């Protein structure tokens, strides 16, 4: 019995690795990370324009936050932040958000086409520009996930302190605020990312009518991807906190490199979730083995 279980696990792992290799998914994740990185600056410009009008004292908050960064990182981003705040206009906001969405959607377009290859999807007969339209919507959703991960995970302690200072004036809320805030800070990013990944894995590939993967399979892949992203984010937070205590001449550069690795890791895990779904369907449900995949790839 034990030997049979180990054989099934081995077949699952080997099938997963082989599918990951033949799908050439590394190119898609790198492509996505590259375009998301390009879209960061216009996105920052748009958010700053909006939050200045919505949030009081937002500009001073950003400047104080910039002062907490290592000196070398501060010197890189401070001129960009100042130019954004000094050039407020509605036309700039529209151009910024348009550029950010366009650049991000280019990356997701490559990702969607990679998913089509992983799931063996026939793209003929789909509505024109289906992949392009979906990639734009998912770019917006991905920005929400990244923002929530950063806000609730990386800057969790700062957010908690601000909320606690506010709830101290309300006696009833103050008694339950610690439990409520901790729960929101830990669970909200995972809930948001799981919901978006369920939607993504189920609807992003250009499935033919009636051949879409089940909700159960998309949920399994979404949970795997969410757990992976949570681990990557924890690694980023831990490493970044460690580098902040390091000498500035390499701590600053290290922080930037870790952030890039974190972004690439998230893009790679999105692919892993899709490959896991396909492996689960083929091996567990359809009872296929590694030989089937090897014969198919010849």
From TrEMBL:
It is found in: Cell membrane. One of its GO terms (cellular component) is plasma membrane. It is a multi-pass membrane protein. This is YihY/virulence factor BrkB family protein. Its main location: membrane. It comes from the Bacteria. Pfam families: Virul_fac_BrkB (PF03631). The chain crosses the membrane at residues 32-54, 92-112, 132-156, 176-201, 213-236, 256-277. Keywords: Cell membrane, Membrane, Transmembrane, Transmembrane helix.
């Amino acid at each position: 019995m034990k030997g049979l279980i180990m054989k099934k696990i081995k077949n699952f792992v080997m099938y997963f690795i082989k599918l990951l290799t033949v799908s050439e998914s590394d190119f898609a994740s790198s492509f996505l990370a590259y375009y998301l990185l390009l879209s960061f600056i216009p996105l920052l410009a748009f958010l700053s324009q909006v939050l200045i009008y919505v949030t009081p004292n937002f500009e001073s908050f950003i400047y104080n936050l910039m002062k907490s960064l290592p000196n070398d990182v501060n010197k890189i981003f401070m001129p960009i932040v100042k130019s954004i705040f000094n050039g407020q206009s509605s036309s700039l906001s529209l151009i910024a958000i348009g550029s950010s969405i366009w650049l991000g959607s280019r990356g997701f377009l490559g990702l969607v086409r990679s998913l089509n290859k992983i799931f063996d999807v026939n793209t003929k007969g789909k509505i024109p520009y289906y992949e392009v339209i979906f990639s734009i919507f998912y770019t917006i959703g991905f920005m929400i996930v990244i923002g929530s991960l950063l806000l609730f995970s990386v800057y969790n302690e700062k957010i908690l302190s601000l909320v606690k200072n506010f709830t101290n004036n309300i006696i009833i809320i103050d008694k339950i605020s610690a439990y409520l805030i901790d729960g929101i800070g830990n669970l909200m990013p995972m809930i948001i990312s799981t919901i978006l990944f369920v939607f993504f894995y189920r609807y992003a590939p250009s499935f033919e009518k009636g051949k879409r993967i089940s909700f159960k399979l998309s949920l399994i892949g979404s949970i795997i991807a969410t757990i992976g992203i949570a681990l990557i984010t924890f690694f980023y937070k831990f490493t970044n906190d460690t580098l902040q205590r390091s000498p500035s001449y390499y701590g600053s550069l290290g922080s930037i490199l870790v952030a890039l690795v974190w972004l690439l890791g998230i893009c790679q895990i999105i692919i892993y979730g899709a490959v896991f779904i396909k492996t689960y369907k083929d091996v567990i449900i359809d009872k296929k083995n590694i030989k089937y995949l090897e014969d198919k790839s010849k």
